[in-house]
Every structure is written in structure tokens, then in C-alpha cells.
Amino acid sequence: MPESSVLTVRLPDDDIRRLDRLAAKRRQTRSQLVQQTLRTLLQTDEEQRQRQLEGLRERLRPAIEAQNDFLDQVSIADEYRSF
């Protein structure tokens, strides 16, 4: 079993009541619901960051290719490709 830690969260009473109703409806504990929700949030955030990174790479690709084409044409290009 992976290591775990305790996290204490302060919520408004109304949110606790709603969480309790949902937990009862789903036959889960508060902790299970919060864990699932947090995992989903973290996974969604990671996926969004990956999509943003891929979008940035795609937008930069033409400029990088143009730079490489230019360097291919410059006689001293091979001296500077190492950095």
C-alpha cells in the first residue's frame, strides 16, 4: 500500500452536510469522496498542462524549423550546433 499522510481541511457546515449526503448516497466515506475528487482534479490539471505544452511546441515548430534551415545555410553553423 502506498504511503499516505493525513490532511485536515476546514469546510463550511453546509458543505459538510452536502458531502455527507453524497457519501451516503454513494455508500462511501467522506474521505473516499474527497480522495477521488482530488485525484480527478490533479489528473485533469496535469492533462491540461500537457495539452498546453504540446500547443506551445506546435506553435514554436515553424520558428524552430526556420532557424534550423537558416543554420544549415550558414557556413559556421556546425561550430555553434553544440549549444
How are the SSEs ordered, and which strands pair?
Elements: H1 13-26, H2 30-73, H3 77-80
What does this protein structure show overall?
- The protein is mainly α and 83 residues long.
- The chain has one domain.
- 75% of the residues lie in helices and 0% in strands.
- It starts with 12 loop residues before the first helix and ends with a helix.
- 0% of the residues are buried.
What is the number of independent domains?
Answer: 1
Q: State the helical fraction.
A: over 70%
Strand count, sense and barrel status of the largest sheet are: none
* SSE string: HHH
Distance between the termini: 45 Å
Which geometry do the CA atoms define? rod-shaped
Mean pLDDT: 89
Number of helices: 3
Note the beta-strand portion.
under 5%
Which parts are unreliable, with pLDDT below 50 for 5 consecutive residues or more? none
The strand count comes to 0
C-alpha Rg (nearest Å): 25 Å
Class by alpha and beta content: mainly alpha
